[in-house]
Design goal:
The chain is an alpha+beta fold. The chain has one domain. 28% of the residues lie in helices and 29% in strands. It is built from seven helices and eight strands. It has an eight-stranded antiparallel β-sheet with strand order 2-8-3-4-1-5-6-7, with helices on both faces. A hairpin with a 4-residue loop joins strand 5 (98-105) and strand 6 (110-118). The chain is globular and about 45 Å long.
Length: 181
């Protein structure tokens, strides 16, 4: 049976300052520090904080890519883009790792279907594969579905895959605010 989050993923993000642009990656590496190491983040530049502190600390005019890396579920970390661009999911997936990515830009009316990379190979049609199709079989949307609802459904799929939806506990957890070179 497919599960649903306790509250709207979209509304939760908006309430906590993750506005009309949302880009995130779900990485099957449990330790956020290992994710930061793979991204070549200098350890002396990492600030441990919750999401709201990371959003407040972010400088939108910074030329550096700024992210908040957090633990999400057993075996999974989450990377939330705060400024700049996300790291390459293909490179992050090397050595047998899986990376899922969602991109949503409300101001230009765009939400991309989730990307999936595994061991250096990108697959944009992964939701049709048997391993993942069950996670979205009960979700329905079409060209007339409002973009926030499309994003919501993609977030539900990734919550089902990883075993945890975005929630208030995740929002208040300690993650790593970091700049990616």
């Amino acid at each position: 049976m497919n599960t649903y989050p306790v509250e709207s993923q979209y509304d939760l993000l908006a309430e906590h300052g993750v506005g009309p642009e949302f880009q995130a990656q779900w990485v099957d590496i449990e330790n956020p520090h290992e994710v930061a190491r793979r991204l070549q983040v200098a350890s002396d530049t990492i600030v441990t904080c919750d999401l709201q502190a990371a959003v407040r600390s972010c400088s939108p005019s910074s030329e550096m890519r700024q992210v908040w890396i957090s633990s999400l579920a057993p075996g999974w970390s989450h990377i939330l883009r705060l400024s700049g661009s996300l790291p390459s999911p293909v490179e992050l997936s090397l050595d047998g790792r899986r990376v899922f990515e969602i991109t949503y830009f409300a101001l230009i009316g765009e939400v991309d279907p989730p990307f999936y990379a595994h061991d250096g190979v990108l697959d944009v049609e992964f939701l049709a594969e048997d391993e993942y199709s069950a996670h979205c079989a009960d979700l329905r949307f079409n060209d007339r579905t409002p973009l926030p609802e499309v994003l919501e459904q993609y977030l539900i799929v990734l919550g089902r895959i990883t075993g945890r939806f975005l929630d208030r506990g995740w929002i208040s957890s300690q993650g790593l605010f970091a700049g990616i070179p």
